[in-house]
Amino acid sequence: MVDSIKILQEWIDSSDNIVFFGGAGVSTESGIPDFRSVDGLYHQEYDYPPETMLSRTFYERKPEEFYRFYRNKMLYLDAVPNEAHKKLAQLEQAGRLRAVITQNIDGLHQKAGSREVLELHGSVLRNYCSRCGRFYPVEAITESRGVPHCECGGKIKPDVVLYEEGLDQKILSKAVRYIEKADILIIGGTSLVVYPAAGLIDYYRGGKLVLINKAPTGMDYKADLLVQGSIGEIMSQIQVHGGR
């Protein structure tokens, strides 16, 4: 691993056009469960499977149950950024990292100081009225009971992408543009199995694709550099120097 980190450091030091694409593994070290890990949300027991309860159909048909589950299992508002979040923010501030593209909905990248964050699956920190469009902070969910409602009477919906819903095409297109132009693409904390997000790797045209993950992925063969281990631990070893 020492050699891999040394190479990664050299690549980072030579570039001012790095893009990071991350998944649930980036936030597990902040205490937020990974949906597909052994101890994750998918391996706990509920009346319905999590993918059912987090679907648009379930939200529409059983909103009370949806919000009970959502409040209990999707909101980790006390979580704080870990070393990976912090280092990525530092790389951006140093003029080396152009954007963070994330599948996470916890807002920890922004909390760490990152500014250009593309949230493919939305954010639990934003909520809106499905009738009038008015936006609400997360307190509209946490400080209410049952189904939260807007002053106009409409349901307040979390601004997160549920199963059966498509990704925001503007955000997706912007992510593609960043990846296409990137000198270095660092992918971390994701199994690269959830589409269409996982398909973003195919838009990278450079020769420095870095995969950082605790476990092997089905895309490892595409990587120019593989670093296996905790992304927080690995990123903490990277030194941040000013841009070229």
Automatic annotation (TrEMBL):
<feature type="binding site">
    <location>
        <position position="106"/>
    </location>
    <ligand>
        <name>NAD(+)</name>
    </ligand>
</feature>
<comment type="function">
    <text>NAD-dependent protein deacetylase which modulates the activities of several enzymes which are inactive in their acetylated form.</text>
</comment>
<feature type="binding site">
    <location>
        <position position="36"/>
    </location>
    <ligand>
        <name>NAD(+)</name>
    </ligand>
</feature>
<feature type="binding site">
    <location>
        <position position="105"/>
    </location>
    <ligand>
        <name>nicotinamide</name>
    </ligand>
</feature>
<feature type="binding site">
    <location>
        <position position="150"/>
    </location>
    <ligand>
        <name>Zn(2+)</name>
    </ligand>
</feature>
<feature type="binding site">
    <location>
        <position position="35"/>
    </location>
    <ligand>
        <name>NAD(+)</name>
    </ligand>
</feature>
<feature type="binding site">
    <location>
        <position position="105"/>
    </location>
    <ligand>
        <name>NAD(+)</name>
    </ligand>
</feature>
<keyword id="KW-0520">NAD</keyword>
<feature type="binding site">
    <location>
        <position position="191"/>
    </location>
    <ligand>
        <name>NAD(+)</name>
    </ligand>
</feature>
<comment type="similarity">
    <text>Belongs to the sirtuin family. Class U subfamily.</text>
</comment>
<dbReference type="GO" id="GO:0005737">
    <property type="term" value="C:cytoplasm"/>
</dbReference>
<dbReference type="InterPro" id="IPR029035">
    <property type="entry name" value="DHS-like_NAD/FAD-binding_dom"/>
</dbReference>
<dbReference type="GO" id="GO:0008270">
    <property type="term" value="F:zinc ion binding"/>
</dbReference>
<feature type="binding site">
    <location>
        <position position="106"/>
    </location>
    <ligand>
        <name>nicotinamide</name>
    </ligand>
</feature>
<protein>
    <recommendedName>
        <fullName>NAD-dependent protein deacetylase</fullName>
        <ecNumber>2.3.1.286</ecNumber>
    </recommendedName>
</protein>
<keyword id="KW-0963">Cytoplasm</keyword>
<feature type="domain" description="Deacetylase sirtuin-type">
    <location>
        <begin position="1"/>
        <end position="244"/>
    </location>
</feature>
<dbReference type="GO" id="GO:0070403">
    <property type="term" value="F:NAD+ binding"/>
</dbReference>
<feature type="binding site">
    <location>
        <position position="28"/>
    </location>
    <ligand>
        <name>NAD(+)</name>
    </ligand>
</feature>
<feature type="binding site">
    <location>
        <position position="213"/>
    </location>
    <ligand>
        <name>NAD(+)</name>
    </ligand>
</feature>
<feature type="binding site">
    <location>
        <position position="24"/>
    </location>
    <ligand>
        <name>NAD(+)</name>
    </ligand>
</feature>
<feature type="binding site">
    <location>
        <position position="231"/>
    </location>
    <ligand>
        <name>NAD(+)</name>
    </ligand>
</feature>
<feature type="binding site">
    <location>
        <position position="121"/>
    </location>
    <ligand>
        <name>NAD(+)</name>
    </ligand>
</feature>
<feature type="binding site">
    <location>
        <position position="190"/>
    </location>
    <ligand>
        <name>NAD(+)</name>
    </ligand>
</feature>
<dbReference type="InterPro" id="IPR026591">
    <property type="entry name" value="Sirtuin_cat_small_dom_sf"/>
</dbReference>
<dbReference type="InterPro" id="IPR003000">
    <property type="entry name" value="Sirtuin"/>
</dbReference>
<feature type="binding site">
    <location>
        <position position="152"/>
    </location>
    <ligand>
        <name>Zn(2+)</name>
    </ligand>
</feature>
<dbReference type="InterPro" id="IPR028628">
    <property type="entry name" value="Sirtuin_class_U"/>
</dbReference>
<keyword id="KW-0862">Zinc</keyword>
<dbReference type="Pfam" id="PF02146">
    <property type="entry name" value="SIR2"/>
</dbReference>
<feature type="binding site">
    <location>
        <position position="35"/>
    </location>
    <ligand>
        <name>nicotinamide</name>
    </ligand>
</feature>
<keyword id="KW-0479">Metal-binding</keyword>
<dbReference type="InterPro" id="IPR050134">
    <property type="entry name" value="NAD-dep_sirtuin_deacylases"/>
</dbReference>
<dbReference type="InterPro" id="IPR026590">
    <property type="entry name" value="Ssirtuin_cat_dom"/>
</dbReference>
<feature type="binding site">
    <location>
        <position position="129"/>
    </location>
    <ligand>
        <name>Zn(2+)</name>
    </ligand>
</feature>
<keyword id="KW-0808">Transferase</keyword>
<feature type="binding site">
    <location>
        <position position="103"/>
    </location>
    <ligand>
        <name>NAD(+)</name>
    </ligand>
</feature>
<dbReference type="GO" id="GO:0017136">
    <property type="term" value="F:histone deacetylase activity, NAD-dependent"/>
</dbReference>
<feature type="binding site">
    <location>
        <position position="132"/>
    </location>
    <ligand>
        <name>Zn(2+)</name>
    </ligand>
</feature>
<feature type="active site" description="Proton acceptor">
    <location>
        <position position="121"/>
    </location>
</feature>
